[in-house]
Amino acid sequence: MAMRCISIFPRNWFLSAKRAMGPGVDVASRDKSSLTQLFLGEGEGDPVRTLDVGCGNGYFSRCAARFGPVVAVTMLPDEFAKADELFKYLGLEVDVRLGKLEDLDEQDESFDQVLLLDVLEHIRDDRSALQHLHRLLRCDGFLFVSFPNRDSNFGSAKHVWRYETGWHVRHGYTFAAIERLLEECGFEPVDRRAYGTYGSKLSVRVQRRLGFRRSTPLLPLMRLLTYCLPLACHHTYLVVARKRT
User: Fold this and answer.
1) pLDDT value at position 6?
2) Number of helices (H), then strands (E), in the chain
3) pLDDT at 62 exceeding the cut of 70
């Protein structure tokens, strides 16, 4: 007879642990977690309304929710269920939706800022996606778009996919390529950042060999690697762009 596996830990303990882990155990995600310092926040006047496209584990939505309401969108049912449970447990004003970007039926100029973090490389028609987001942003609103550095072999997929299956449909972008595309879609790039070191590159290799679960106890050691090998090895780029009127 099959036996059910029952966790020895209360569910609330597990959710509290997820909150404490912040951006999660993925080293590459932890590398770029500091980009939250660039979000619109206190001192901006009215509450900041945020759209988080492809919300992942919800870390960036959680950070944005400190300053106003958030709409978080994901096309993955499992991701949706986990994020929705966590937001409710934390009592955050986050409206989690299961669907794609084109399913959003918000009125024009609904959001003060849009987070498009490690998403655009999964979308075939990236131009249409950016044009749609341009419509949803308010006048002088900001788009935060992060993406793999196309010229880095750090964590890049061995191949790209022909269709949108959840995997990459392109390896990434260069700063020049994404900024040109943003300008053509009605945005003005105003800032750029790069994330990743040789220490984090080695840490990601450890994670991929051992898997996330077995490598989690090694996080402090992998963090130490980042400090010991701080030389730049940029795996992820970020561009902040303002909506042109």
Assistant:
1) 44
2) 9, 7
3) yes
Q: Which amino acid is at 231?
A: L
Average pLDDT of the residues in 30-42: 87
For residue 33, what is the DSSP state? G
Mode of pairing for the β-strands spanning 232-243 and 111-117? unpaired
Nearest-10 Cα torsion for 193, 194, 196, 198: -130
Residue 139 structure tokens: 């006048």
Considering only the C-alpha atoms of the chain, give the largest distance between any 2 of them, rounded to a whole number of Å.
65
Cα distance from N-terminal residue to C-terminal residue, the chain: 65
d(CA 129, CA 118): 13
Q: What are phi and psi of 231, to 5 degrees?
A: -60, 140
Query: Which two tokens mark 195?
Result: 């994330």
The domain limits of the chain are: 11-195+235-243
What is the spatial distance between Cα 117 and Cα 194, in angstroms, rounded to a whole number? 13
Q: What is the pTM of this model?
A: 0.85
Q: What percent of the chain has pLDDT over 90?
A: 46
Cβ neighbours for 116, distance < 8 A, ≥ 6 positions apart: 53, 54, 129, 133, 143, 144, 145, 146
Which residue do the tokens 């790209």 mark? 160
The tokens describing 217, both together, are 């106890």
130 vs 162: CA distance, rounded Å: 20
CA 9 to chain centre: 29
The whole-angstrom separation of Cα 28 and Cα 217 is: 17
As a CATH number, domain 11-195+235-243 is 3.40.50.150
Q: What is the Cα 137 distance to its own chain's centre? A: 18
